[in-house]
Structures are given as C-alpha cells and as structure tokens.
Specification:
The complex is a heterodimer of chains A (293) and B (239). A two-stranded antiparallel ribbon of chain A has the order 1-2. Chain A has one domain. Chain A is globular, with a radius of gyration of 19 Å. Chain A has 12 helices and 2 strands, in the order αααααββααααααα. Chain A is mostly helical and 293 residues long. Chain B is α/β, with parallel strands linked by helices and 239 residues long. Chain B has one domain (2-87, 154-238): Rossmann fold, CATH 3.40.50. Chain B contains 10 helices and 10 strands. In chain B, strand 4 and strand 5 (63-64) form a beta hairpin. In chain B, helix 3 packs parallel to helix 6 (136-148). The N and C termini of chain B lie far apart (36 Å). The chains are: A mainly alpha (293), B alpha/beta (239).
Chain lengths: 293, 239
Amino acid sequence: MLVQQLVNGVSLGAIYAVFAIGFTLVFGVMNVLNLSQGAVFMWGAYVGLEVVRTLALPLPLAILAAATAAGLLGVLSEVLVFRPLQRRGAHRWMGMVGGLALARILIGLAQEIFGTQVVRYPDNALAGAALELLGARLQLLQIVAIGAALLMVIALAALLRYTNVGRAIRTVAFSENVARLVGVPVDRIRLMTFFVSGALAGGAGVLWSLLFQSVSPFMGDGILLKGLTVLILGGLGNIVGALVGGVLLGLVEVASVVVVGSGYRDAVGFGIVLLILLTRPTGLFATRETTRA
Amino acid sequence: MLEVVGLSSGYGGPAVLKDVSLHVGAGEIVTVIGTNGAGKTTLLNTLAGLLRPLGGVVRLDGEPISGRPTEKIVRAGLSLVPEGRQVIAPLSVEENLRVGAYGRKGGGSADTLAAIYDRFPRLKERRRQPAGLLSGGEQQMLAIGRALMAGPRVLLLDEPSMGLAPLIVSEIFALLDELNKQGLTVLLVEQNARKALALAKRGYVLEGGRIVLEGPAEQLARSPAIVEAYLGASAEVAA
C-alpha cells in the first residue's frame, strides 16, 4: 500500500517536474513567465493522440512527435509574443498577459479542431502492462514517466553545464548584452530555449494524458497552476529545484488523497506549498547564482 | 583599421553622441578621454553594435559594420571589454573564457586560453571558481581575457581603471601596452586621462557628445585646456 502510493506520487510528480522544468528554464534564462505553457502541454497531448490514432504509430514516436510540435509552439510564442514585446521595451507583466492571450487562442483552436469532449488514448501496452513489486502494482507507464523525467533533467543539466550552447544559454541568463559582446547570437539561443521548454511541456502532456486517460482542450489550466507552484517551490529558475519540487508536489497530492480524500487534493497540495513559502520565502532551494540556468 | 565617420547615437531621446569622427590605425593605441556623461560609453556601445547609430558609419578594414548585430561585429574582429567588467558571475573563470570564444571565427582558442593562463596565473589557479568571487582587478583581467578569446583585431576598452587600486591600474595599462606591442589595435576610453594619455599615441577629447580636441597624446597632455579640465588641480596635488 505504501509502496503503491509512493510510486503513484513519484510518477505523478515526475510529470509535474518535466512540465515545470520547461517553465523554469524559460524563466531562468529570459526572465519570462510563459503562461501559454499549459496550452502547449495540451497541444502536445492532442498531437500525440492524433499520431497514435490516425497514423497508428507506436507511443514513443507519438511522444517524440508531440514534443517536436510543442517545441515549435514554444518557438512560435517567442516569435509572436515575447520577442515583439521585448523589442518594444514592454514591461514583464505584458509578457504574462501576452502568454495568457496566446493560451486562449491555442485553447480555442483546439476546441474548433478536436471538439470539447474529453477523449482518451487507445489502450496500449505501455499503459496496460504492469508488474508486481513488493505488493505494489507498477504500471509500465509510471516507470516510463519517472525514467523520462530523470533522463530529461540529466540531459538538460549536462547540456547547460558541459556544452558550448549550454554556456551560451547561461550567459544569456546572466545578461543578454554580455552574451552579445562575446559573440553569442542571443535571438537564436532564445528560440532554442523556447523550443526545449515547449518540447518538455508537450512530452509531459502525453505522459499526463496516458496516466489520467483523458485529453481535453482545458487540461492545460490545472497543470499551469501546478507548474507555477513547483516553479516557486523549487526556486525560480532552478532546474534541480523544479525536479525535487515536482516530485514533492506529486507525493503530497497522493498522500492527501489517501489521508483526507480526493476532494481536498489540491487544497492540501497548495496549502503545504503556502506553509513552505511562509518559512522559506525563496523556495526550498534558494536560487544560488551558480545553480541557476 | 577602424574608421568612424559622422557617428550619431543615443537611447531613443535626443542624440547623446553627435557627429563623432575618429580613426584608429592598424597596430595603433588610441584613447578617448572625457568626463562622466561625455558619451564615452555610448560611443563604445555603438561601435560594438549594442546601440544602433542614428547616423554616420563605422568601418572595420574598409568594411561597414555599423548597424550589424553585435555577434557579427565580434566575428568581424572587434571586441569590447564593457564598463564595469561584466564578468559572468555564476560561470566559472574558465567558462567565462570559453564562452568568450563563442564568436570566434576559425580555431586557435585553445592557444589563446593557454596564453591567457600564462599571463595571468591567478586566473588559472582560480579557474574552477565562480567569476563573481574574483577581486575587482582579477575580474578586469578576466574581462580582457574573455574579449581576447574571440581573437579580435581591434580591442575596445571602456574605463578599465574604474574602481581599481592604482597598482592594479598600472598592471592593466602595462598589459594593454604589451598586447599592443604584440600587434593588437586598441581603442581605450578613460576618465583617468593622465594614465590614458601616457599609454596612447594619439587621443581624442569627448565633451557633450562631440569630439572637441584631438592630437598626439603628449601634446594633449600638455595642452592647458586638458590640464585644467582633466588633469586638474587634484593631479598637481597628487604629483
């Protein structure tokens, strides 16, 4: 029972983490809070679904396609919203409103194209297969979610730490002008960052829809709030913090369902975050400059 | 090598820099002196492409570079060591240097890195530490090293003496002299007119966004107007 809940919590948290890492990356590098991220997550879920249903391709390919499409949506949000606003010297609040506007457009489009009813991925091996471990039933999907989250964090951390592009991204995070002065093409680096961020959201979208067996145009709103929570919990712009914060939120939610019932899941989750922030206002992992993206 | 003709620039309001013309020959070391607010930083930021000129033209080896994005200007061979050093605090010393080679055309960055470590053993010792933990003088050395990593032909420096102890300033000026003797073309913008004019061959005086005086450095250093305005009474007391 305990092991079962632990697995449920960690796998849910892993999906939160993947979503939140994309969120925190864009925030850490460009100081932009991209509120269209939830809609990008939803579009990822639909693209994955279409690839599985109409093209009948296997799930890993669907995740890849969803991540790519969502990454392109991330690029689009920079080109259509954030870059023009920055060029006009707009205040950062305007970027938040712009992101929200883009989200509404993406949600409206999804309603038009896919309809408003809740749909689900067809039964598949990944969600169906399970194995017994210490009396707990582990869905293969849960293991994939946890593995994918870990893999993405490690890959992202390695990219940021050990590659030329990673150093360039961190230099842009420090100062766009300094980045320009050392010859970094800042616009291109920003596009890449938005792509990675969108791709993470899209991948998370597919995993989430598989886990909850539901896809709808409005599925992005809830995760957006949770992503914000994790972003703050882990320390703004802190990637490792987002991973730990995401898993923590997943565990807290699952625990609260067990202890006080599912109606209070979000209340308990957000309540605990509030408590943490009252005692540690900068998040669990006060963003040390050295660990910032 | 670097030629500036009728350059005007600013920040969206009235022009800060008005009709500035100057030139720096290959292998030369030239200084622009001026008080706070004279437009020195605006001049360098415009040359480096961080600001778009309102008018005029900047040529590097005859090729117009004004209006190009900064990263292209860096690739063309012009690097700026910005005011206040601007080392990338969260990155390690070595990462600062390596990101400096991002805009380098062709190879050779490993040789430059080795040469920088040879010249500044302190940077090599502290290469794994975050650059933000370095002293002011070390940060200035790092900022210069980072600019050199791009393999520039022309190096622009914005007040490298700012906020540093006199001994460190002398060290930095000795370094600039050395780099210049190795063939690097240098345009140095300074408030510390005495030191800048002692180092440079020629100088310009920037006042209210305009060049008001120019000539050989020794001549400027002796000019009564300069002595009064820039080398002034305090300098005499110090001397």
